[in-house]
Design brief:
globular, alpha/beta, 7 helices, about 250 residues, nine-stranded mixed sheet, 15 strands, Rossmann fold
Length: about 250
């Protein structure tokens, strides 16, 4: 999979799940597969080939066979029934994305595909591996500092755990672009919390062994001058592709 750049370096194919949304552009008002352009740009800057993956029911192994890496993108809340909870009044779900992305992650894990999970993606990973979520973070921490203004990313200072993978990639402190009203409650047994906000909210997770799996509650795609997390995924994706094609 992938292609070669001008220096012969193989560029890995990175899957990016999308929404299916009614969208207006030009003279059109039509159903579309959409994702913020910042994800695409981040992938290109980091040396990957972005491929948009619209929700089309359960994911198939043929999709995973064509990827070298996967970004579980941000978006709507997960269906609370998936972690044994009743919906909060503030919870807004998208069943089509849930069906597609939970099966996509399961397939990715089955073949050791490198995964970077962003915001909703981190929450999906935690739930898929047996964890639970706080459905409305302001009810717990008493403020809205993780999503101050709807549609605008705020900046939250996040401290990473020394000797963790995310600390090796992003350093001891991150000025994180955040926009989330949910967060991890019970952490899945396979995961380690490796970054926190000042109020104790888990802001990053990872696995200590096995294939690359890093999740961040913030949005690295919104910081156009810091692609370190995406570059780390692309590096892993290159190695994954080499091993698969031997």
């Amino acid at each position: 999979m992938g292609s070669n750049d001008s220096e012969g370096q193989r560029r890995p194919v990175i899957g990016l799940p999308t929404y299916s949304e009614r969208t207006r552009f030009g003279v059109w008002d039509v159903d579309s597969a959409v994702l913020p352009r910042s994800y695409v740009d981040m992938t290109v800057r980091a040396g990957g080939i972005p491929v948009l993956l619209p929700p089309t029911g359960a994911a198939s192994a043929e999709v995973i066979d064509r990827l070298d890496g996967l970004v579980l993108t941000g978006g709507a809340d997960l269906e609370p029934a998936r972690y044994g909870a009743e919906p909060h009044a503030a919870t807004r779900t998208r069943a089509d994305r849930d069906e597609f992305e939970f099966t996509l992650f399961e397939l990715a894990r089955s073949v050791d595909l490198p995964v970077l999970a962003v915001c909703r993606g981190l929450q999906l990973v935690n739930v898929a591996l047996g964890g639970t979520l706080l459905q409305h973070l302001p009810d717990v921490v008493g403020h809205t500092g993780h999503a101050v203004t709807p549609g605008t990313f705020g900046v939250t200072t996040v401290r990473t755990l020394p000797d963790s993978r995310v600390a090796a990639i992003a350093g001891p402190e991150v000025k994180a672009h955040c926009h989330h009203h949910q967060a991890i409650d019970a952490l899945a047994p396979e995961l380690t919390a490796t970054a926190h906000a000042a109020d104790g909210t888990i802001e990053a997770v990872e696995t200590r062994t096995g294939p690359f799996l890093v999740g961040v509650q913030w949005h690295p795609e919104e910081n156009a001058i810091d692609d370190r997390l995406m570059r780390a995924l692309v590096e892993q994706a290159v190695e994954y592709g080499r091993e698969r094609n031997r």
